[in-house]
Amino acid sequence: MPRAASRPDPVADDGLPMGWDPADLPQSDAEPVDEERIGSRDLAEWRSRPGKVLANATTKAADALAGLPPSRVSLLVLTLTASIGAFLIVLLAAGAGEVYEDVAHADGVAGFDRPVLDAAVAMRTPDLDSWVTRFTDLGGPVLMPFIAITMTAYAVWRWRSRTPIILVVLTVAGALATTILGKDVVGRARPPRELAVPPYEVSASFPSGHTLNATAILGITAYLLLVTFTRTWTRVAALGSALSFVLAMGLSRVFLGHHWLTDVVAGWLLGLFWVIVVVTGHRLKVTLDRSSRREDQVD
After folding, report:
1. DSSP secondary structure of 62-110
2. Please, which residues bridge with residue 42 across strands?
3. How far is C-alpha 219 from the geometric centre of its chain's CA atoms?
4. Is cis: bond before 191, omega within 30 of 0?
5. CA distance 139 to 201
6. Core-most of 57, 97, 181, 227, by most CB within 10 Å?
7. CA neighbours within 13 Å on the CB side: how many for 136?
8. Cβ contacts of 280 within 8 Å, gap of 6 or more
9. Per-residue pLDDT for 237 more than 70?
10. Domains of the chain by range and CATH?
11. How far is the C-alpha of 289 from the C-alpha of 55, rounded, in Å?
């Protein structure tokens, strides 16, 4: 019997089969990445009310700078967002130190610090101490700059844009400044040296610099990869790897007795806050770029 002709899949207006996600289509390395989307998510689409208010206010403020090139306006907005975020994060770091002092006297959250450290001391062995020390060293001035530079270069190549450089530089500068200012403002003492694994740390304890910087740098690199990668499983792998490393880095600092638990929690929160600030700045840039293109089409 002759074979029945197969019916073609129904197609949408864009010529793709119904139900297909454009993000699932292969993307040639020769084509620049669309920095305005993460998969099917449009970064210029603000779903929350505060986000919509912020986007509208930014667009109106940009109208007053209509005489400048759109690229300069976008860069100015990104820099201004980072500046405001830096001011807020310094206040947040100082406020966190004050909150810690309050709860420490009341045996609140800080009451977990010593029991957690005691539990870590009980788990130590010479081999485990050595392995954890090697791992925690990765969060210092060796691996973190390497990750930042490598991922930035890859994103610049794929995006065909200097935007990843700006995002990473702002993130690294903000994280380092927050770490330095936080330590100077709070001035918290580290755990007793007899409970720490050498080599010993000499700077102030709050917040954990290794944790904060790892959270910020890996957070922004994960964001760059979320925009760059087109397949869902690669985006999930990138986000999961960054999250696992950041969590392990923070816990390693407590295990080795180099920080109290609250130092690490503060590092996670401050680093995450700074990533959110930089990502928000990038989304505002995307929104302004989209608005500028629409105005050009109308003209």
Report:
1. HHTTTTS-HHHHHHHHHHHHHHHHHHHHHHHHHHHHHHHHHHHHTTSGG
2. 37
3. 3
4. no
5. 14
6. 227
7. 27
8. 54, 81, 85
9. yes
10. 70-298 (1.20.144)
11. 12
Give CA–CA dist 112/100, Å, rounded.
12
Angle between helices 232-255 and 209-228 in degrees, nearest 10: 180
Mean pLDDT of 228-254: 93
Lowest mean pLDDT of 20-24, 33-37, 61-65, 253-257, name the range.
Answer: 20-24
The tokens describing 278, both together, are 């930089």
Structure confidence by residue, pLDDT tens digits, 197-206: 988 888 888 8
Residue 104 has pLDDT above 60, yes or no: no
Mean pLDDT of 45-70: 73
- Single-letter residue type at 156: V
Two structure tokens written together for 242: 């960054």
Helix (H/G/I), strand (E/B), else coil: 11: strand
Nearest to 226 by CA among 216, 217, 238, 215: 238
In order, the DSSP letters of 207-241 are S-HHHHHHHHHHHHHHHHHHHH--SHHHHHHHHHH
